[in-house]
Design goal:
Helix content is 53%, strand content 9%. By secondary structure, it is α/β, with parallel strands linked by helices. The strands form two sheets. A five-stranded mixed beta sheet has the order 1-3-2-4-5, sandwiched between helices. The protein has a two-stranded antiparallel ribbon with strand order 6-7. Strand 6 (245-246) and strand 7 form a beta hairpin. Helix 4 crosses helix 6 (157-169), helix 8 packs across helix 10 and helix 10 (266-288) packs antiparallel against helix 11. It is a multi-pass membrane protein. InterPro entries: OligosaccharylTrfase_OST3/OST6. It comes from Lupinus albus. It is found in: Endoplasmic reticulum membrane.
């Protein structure tokens, strides 16, 4: 049965009214729309382009009921290791997922991602000139007066972002939840291999045929522990310190030593650790090997050379420490010698 023209017209009016009402409701609830976009993202990071960023900044009356913490990215530069964009995005995702996990009911800040390919205009409006780059768009901020984040500590990027957000917005991100080094599957597999190997290991240990019965192994292990302790390797592992940095003023130049007492690069620790290890090996040779040489002249010459090299190395470490920290190291004679 065909509908009359009046009924058809009435049905069309009702449909258009419902669509208009739905669009109006969506425009009046940007927080709900952001939450919807956030729920579809694995880490809760909302992908925005030139149109959507304007939708949530310029089209919403200030003060907005939320802030936007946005990172700028360029996929074509991901292969440039000196920029570290891939690692930076992973750290940004960690901050976002950790915030959502720690604060499931707080909707005062949203984490967003802008890619250069789809947002050339947005890069220009924010004045982004280098990468990586992050900005906080507060409830009353626009494009030009948003707050860029300063220099990040490369050893704790996610933590630095969390501190910046808390300082600027008084909103606590909470602890950063990093994924475990080993998955459950890996742990089970390793446990099975260890259990299968235990009987064989016990048999070899009782027979005295294991590497642990070799003095050379313990000598090498002692050297490793000595180097590990004096080079600051544990600090580098805990803080995830990079081996080097790229000079911002000259991208083709690498920085292996950084003049700041608050940060240590991996190359610095390895260099100082190597120098200290040389001194330790020389002293060990003087006390354990040189004393067995029967020729006194050879003993004296080698001892003088070893002491000279040791003093030179210690002096270089002192000079490096003074340059890096600004603190001087001075020797003091006993007062009775004056």
């Amino acid at each position: 049965m065909a509908l009359s023209p009046k009924l058809t017209f009435l049905f069309l009016i009702i449909t258009l009214s419902s669509v208009s009402a739905s669009a109006s409701a969506s425009n009046d609830d940007p927080v709900g729309e952001l939450l919807s976009l956030q729920s579809t993202s694995k880490y809760g990071v909302i992908y925005l382009d030139d149109q959507s960023i304007s939708r949530f900044i310029t089209s919403v009356t200030t003060p907005r009921p939320y802030s936007i913490f946005v990172t700028f990215d360029a996929v074509e530069f991901h292969d440039r290791a000196e920029l570290g964009l891939v690692k930076f995005m992973k750290e940004f995702n960690l901050v976002s997922s950790s915030f959502i996990k720690n604060n499931p009911n707080i909707t005062k800040i949203f984490f967003c991602h802008i890619e250069f390919k789809d947002s050339n205009l947005t890069f220009t409006r924010f004045g982004v000139r280098n990468l990586p780059h992050v900005r906080l768009v507060g409830p009353t901020h626009g494009f030009s007066d948003s707050e860029p984040m300063g220099t990040l500590d490369p050893t704790r990027i996610a933590e630095s972002m969390a501190e910046f957000i808390e300082f600027k917005t008084n909103i606590s991100v909470g602890p950063i939840h990093r994924p475990p080094l080993l998955s459950r599957y890996h742990i089970i597999l390793i446990s099975i291999v260890i259990l299968a190997f235990i009987p064989y290991a016990i048999k070899k240990f009782i027979a005295g045929q294991t590497p642990f019965h070799s003095p050379k192994l313990w000598l090498a292990f002692s050297l490793f522990v000595y180097f590990f302790s004096v080079s600051g390797c544990m600090h580098n592992i805990i803080r995830k310190a990079p081996m080097y940095l790229v000079d911002r003023n000259n991208p083709s130049k690498l920085m292996f030593f950084y003049q700041s007492p608050s940060m240590q690069l991996g190359a610095e620790g390895f260099t100082v650790g190597f120098l200290y290890t040389v001194v330790g090996l020389l002293l060990a040779f003087l006390t354990q090997g040189l004393v067995k040489v029967s020729n006194v002249i050879v003993q004296r010459v080698v001892m003088i050379l070893a002491l000279f090299v040791s003093l030179f190395i210690v002096n270089q470490v002192v000079v490096l420490t003074n340059w890096k920290t600004g603190y001087g190291i001075h020797g003091f004679w006993p007062s009775s010698w004056n």
